[in-house]
Specification:
single chain, alpha+beta, Glutamine Phosphoribosylpyrophosphate, subunit 1, domain 1, Rossmann fold, 7-stranded antiparallel sheet, 17 helices, 32% helix, binds 1-O-pyrophosphono-5-O-phosphono-alpha-D-ribofuranose, binds glutamine
Length: 451
């Protein structure tokens, strides 16, 4: 999952700074690399680097990234290694100029499209599916100047998830959400101009009040100070349920739903489905906290912060290497012996994917003196790969792919383990099951997927 940003300023030239702020608010969506590209009035100029937004850009960089229009990206790699060549935004030339593109999502048929483009003479600079989109768009724009027409062509070819921001060397800003609406994307505006962010938190930090989410299949085209928009292609709605469970920030709004409220509801529902006699509810920071609050409230048991997160360690699930993920969990989370000693605990996390986190937490809590450790998970078991932008590409890496709940419980050495039901999850999000993508929970996907 990545984060994308964009801005179109009517009077100022601070596109670099605005994109920086939006990306910083979306940092939880990608920690591997960051990039900003701006239209400086003549051409597209940018900077990309490995690391967090604050590591990649300093003040002189932002001064150089001056111009009225710009886009940005924070990356969590799904297609292509975690290397600078694959960092975004991607700049591509075409017959009438240049464009730069930032992508959140994953294209299921990118290999096939890449082969076609290569045989047509395109020389790729990266391994990513995102460059495939940029090149397809460049080809389409050679044929037409109408951005909607160009995206009609591009969207007809692409299968998969894509929330995009694009700028051109004509100074246009374009925002696009794929026809299924897998990933979030929102547009805000005020007297300063127009702003695009993966999540609404990116608009909050700018104090932008007027806003809306893009519809699925919608292309928003901003040029010469005016906005035009069109839904150019529609498929069945398939919003990723994992955005609500884990990915998005709790203070974001997706599909009109406050993510915090959805997570709290998941916790409450989990307490109804899988209560446990315990002395304390302990949340797994960070993303398990909101569900834990709902769980504790519903059970009427006190919640205590028995695990403390080192605030300088980021998310471990989205780290690219397994070894690094495992090592970082102990560095990230530390139990408070004085709080948990002798207690029976209900430990609530949002999800178990590979099982790295739960395994280590149970051990840590027992070492710190917990009498019993009951794991409660506020989403169903992840049994199938994701093809739409979450890095769990193979069944082998998923702990629930081959093991049932009692076996997983044994593997993580918990006293008991229970997950939220699919029905409970769907009702907590308050969308219909057929409006969500639950492919990783059921193996049934909204698009064709590779064999
Ligand atoms: O079973 P696993 O493969 O370990 O993955 C699941 C864990 O990973 C995530 O936490 P993460 O540390 O990424 O981020 P967070 O701080 O937002 O909870 C998620 O919240 C679970 O705790
Ligand atoms: N997680 C994402 O959205 C990643 C975007 C793109 N597939 C990449 O790997 O760069
Ligand atoms: Mg977590």
């Amino acid at each position: 999952m990545c984060g994308v940003s964009g801005c179109y300023l009517l009077k100022e030239n601070e596109a670099g700074v605005y994109n920086y702020l939006i990306l910083h608010a979306n940092q939880h969506r990608g920690q591997e690399s960051a990039g900003i590209c701006v239209y400086d009035g003549l051409r597209l100029v940018g900077k990309k680097g490995m690391g967090l937004v604050t590591e990649v850009f300093d003040r002189p960089d932002l001064r150089k990234l001056s111009g009225p229009v710009g886009i940005g990206h924070v990356r969590y790699s799904t297609t292509g290694a975690s290397e600078l060549v694959n960092a975004q935004p991607f700049k591509v030339g075409y017959s009438k100029g240049e464009l730069a593109l930032a992508h959140n999502g994953d294209i299921v048929n990118s290999e096939e499209l890449r082969r076609e483009l290569v045989s047509d003479g395109h020389a790729f600079v990266s391994e990513t599916d995102s460059e495939v989109i940029a090149r397809l768009l460049a080809v389409a724009l050679t044929e037409t100047d109408d951005m909607f027409e160009a995206f009609e062509d591009v969207m007809e070819r692409l299968v998969g998830s894509y929330s995009l921001t694009v700028i051109t060397s004509h100074g246009d800003l374009i925002a696009v959400r794929d026809p299924w609406g897998f990933r979030p994307l929102c547009l805000g505006w005020d007297e300063r101009g127009f702003f695009v962010s993966s999540e609404t938190v990116g608009l909050d930090v700018l104090g932008v009040e007027e806003r809306r989410e893009l519809e699925r299949g919608e292309v928003v085209w901003i040029r010469e100070g005016d906005v035009e928009s069109k839904v150019v292609r529609r498929e069945r709605k398939a919003v990723c349920m994992f955005e609500f469970v884990y990915f998005a920030r709790p203070d974001s709004i997706i599909e009109g739903r406050c993510v915090y409220e959805c997570r709290k509801c998941m916790g409450k529902r989990l307490a109804e489905e899988a209560p446990v006699e315990c002395d304390l509810v302990v949340p797994v920071p960070d993303s398990g906290r909101t569900a834990a609050l709902g769980y504790a409230e519903s059970l009427g048991v006190p919640m205590e912060e028995g695990l403390i997160k080192n605030r300088y360690v980021g998310r471990t699930f989205i780290m690219p290497e397994q070894e690094e993920r495992v090592r970082s969990i102990r560095v990230k989370l530390n139990p408070i012996r004085e709080v948990i000693k002798g207690c029976s605990l209900a430990v609530v996390d949002d999800s178990i994917v590979r099982g790295n986190t739960s395994r280590q937490i149970v051990e840590m809590l027992r070492d710190a003196g917990a009498r019993e450790v009951h794991m409660r998970i506020a989403s169903p078991p992840v049994v199938s790969p994701c093809y739409y932008g979450i890095d769990m590409a193979t069944k082998e890496e998923l702990i629930a792919a081959d093991l049932d709940v009692p076996e997983i419980c044994e593997k993580i050495s918990a006293d008991s383990l229970a997950y939220l039901s699919l029905e409970g999850l769907v009702e907590s999000i308050r969308l219909k099951k057929r409006e969500l993508c639950v492919g990783c929970l059921t193996g049934e996907y909204p698009t064709p997927v590779p064999e």
